[in-house]
Specification:
heterodimer; A: 201 residues; 2 domains; four-stranded antiparallel β-sheet; 5 strands; B: 333 residues; mainly alpha; 15 helices; 2 strands
């Protein structure tokens, strides 16, 4: 077999000039500064220093899609969320659905892409027993997102009005499973939306 | 049979810093501390290496991007269109505008979003086979970033890691090995390359950053310290594809799995570099990520993490695994 690995004899000169290596080294330092600052200044808790340092890097981080916190299943894996919706069609008949739909959202990557809609909206929505001031303030953040989801579903299914509810699914502890105990899911109303006269919900 | 003498600390250190560049042959060396650092930096980032691992990462990344683009194509108007899940005017609520640009902002009609996605898919296919690779890599990265920045409601960890891999493929000679390009232009062999080293190091170091922050993020959570965090993933019906609820009766097993995952992730950036521990760390990566893929239905996420881990496979191992009868020529000085 003509396998030849000729790098057994080390070459004697670097292929790139010292100037090229210096420029690349500077670029590497800047690149990894951006890579590290994004999670440092990303999801809370984050330091004021990191938030200050990241400012000049924001165009670069945003432009290369590097702004991630990398907090996979952290700090604690929590309950799953879905959005139940109930729609009135143009002929007056009802239509119900759930986002994501594990039976029809296939392949699995499509399911996950739709699952992220409910998970990310849930991150903005406080529990229904939270203080009124917190719920009012949070509504300014989540309502435009929910409005977009409602508009999309109305357009897709040809509905006139839709009611959405965020479902936080019960996450059983091991002892709940051993005792076959099932608690109800937590429901948070997300509002009712209708097509306006200008056709936007 | 006599065993070779064990490596002493100084031997390992010399091996770490010298790489393929003998210290005594370097004109920069004066054996000062600063010179040693400079030499180690040069060897780490710029010493020419076999582009084979980068070629294999390219193939796997291209396949994952092709699959991701295919899934985007199943519902392009919902993901990127004007009447989609997240109208363009609301994207700023989810990401850092105006920096997170996207081709889907100017090209927002139903047909335009379809064509942008289709072009990304074609670029991914070209990247996979390694035809017009530099151009394909750039187009694939542009298409990928456009999709991720336009649909922040629909992206997750899979996309974070896929983007990191694509940047490495744009920087390095991704088509230098195992590609149509290499067959067409360079015959049945390829050259050692400093750009290949740079690209593979970008992926390696970035992957260490990912594991470091992922591990540190978990250290904020009580359930990771209590050893029960994996139960939270197992019992979550929205993720579950494999029923592991029987683990409810085996809390110590859940403890072991949770704590092993936690400490593996936190220590990854340290233990992946020494040869002595690298195989163990990579074997653990296979178990953790395939476990996530099979039990939580996140196979794409598991696979993309494994592809990133492939960057740590030495070229000699790749060559052995693939039985590649290929010549490797020295780099052009």
């Amino acid at each position: 077999m003509p396998t030849v690995a000729s790098h057994s004899t080390p070459p004697r000169a670097m292929p790139w000039s010292i100037v090229a290596r210096a420029v690349l080294s500077l670029a590497l330092c800047l690149y990894f500064s951006a890579v590290v600052l994004a999670p440092l200044a990303g999801p809370p808790p984050a330091s004021e220093l990191a938030n200050w340092l990241i400012q000049p890097f924001r165009p670069f981080i945003g432009g290369l899609y590097l702004g991630h916190g990398y907090r996979f299943f952290a700090p604690d894996p929590g309950p799953g969320h879905s959005i139940r919706w109930s729609m009135q069609l143009t002929d007056g008949s009802p239509l119900n659905g759930v986002l994501p739909n594990p039976t029809s959202d296939w392949p699995r990557l499509l399911y996950h892409r739709r699952f992220m809609v409910s998970e990310k909206i849930a991150a903005f929505v406080p529990l229904s027993d939270a203080p009124e001031a917190i719920r009012t303030k949070a509504r300014l953040d989540w309502q435009p997102l929910v409005k977009g989801v409602a508009g999309h579903l109305l357009k897709k299914h040809g509905g006139t009005q839709i009611t959405l509810t965020l479902v936080e699914h019960f996450l059983p502890a091991p002892e709940d499973v051993l005792r076959s105990r099932q608690e109800p899911d937590l429901l948070t109303p997300l509002g009712t939306y209708a097509i306006a006269a200008d056709r936007s919900p | 049979m006599s065993l070779p003498p064990p490596n002493t600390g100084s031997t390992i250190c010399a091996e770490l810093i010298s790489g393929p560049w003998p210290l005594e042959s370097s004109p920069l060396v004066s054996h000062s501390w600063a010179a040693l650092w400079l030499h180690a930096w040069n060897a780490f980032w710029f010493a020419p290496t076999d582009p084979l691992p980068l070629g294999l990462v390219r193939i796997a990344t291209g396949l994952l991007l092709a699959w991701s683009s295919t899934v985007w194509l199943l519902d392009t108007s919902a993901f990127f269109g004007t009447g989609g899940w997240l109208p363009a005017e609301n994207v700023w609520r989810m990401n850092d505008q105006p920096w997170q640009w996207s081709l889907y902002f100017p090209f927002s009609s139903e047909s335009a979003v379809f064509w942008v996605t289709l072009i990304t898919l074609l670029a991914a296919v070209l990247l996979t086979i390694g035809l017009a690779t530099p151009l394909a890599a750039v187009v694939a990265l542009v298409g990928f970033i456009s999709a991720s920045n336009r649909a922040p409601l629909n992206v997750f960890g899979f996309d974070d890691v896929l983007g990191m891999l694509l940047i490495g493929l744009v920087v390095g000679p991704a088509g230098a090995a195992c590609s149509v390009d290499s067959q067409l232009w360079r015959g049945r062999g390829w050259r050692l390359s400093s750009a290949a080293t740079l690209a593979i190091r970008l992926i390696q170091v970035h992957l260490c950053v990912i594991y470091f922050f992922s591990g540190c993020g978990k250290l904020l959570g009580a359930t990771w310290w209590e050893g029960t965090a994996l139960w939270g993933a197992i019992a979550n019906l929205q993720y579950r594809t494999l029923d592991l609820m029987w683990l409810a009766g085996h809390p110590l097993v859940v403890n072991v799995l949770t704590l092993t995952t936690l400490f593996w992730e936190v220590l990854y950036p340290v233990l992946i570099w020494p040869r002595l521990t690298r195989r163990l760390v990579l074997a653990m990566a296979v178990m953790v990520h395939m476990g996530i893929g099979l039990s939580m239905g996140m196979m794409e996420f598991g696979l993309v993490m494994l592809v990133a881990n492939m960057a740590f496979m030495p070229a000699s191992v790749c060559r052995k695994l693939l039985c590649l009868p290929v010549k490797v020529y020295p780099a052009i000085p």
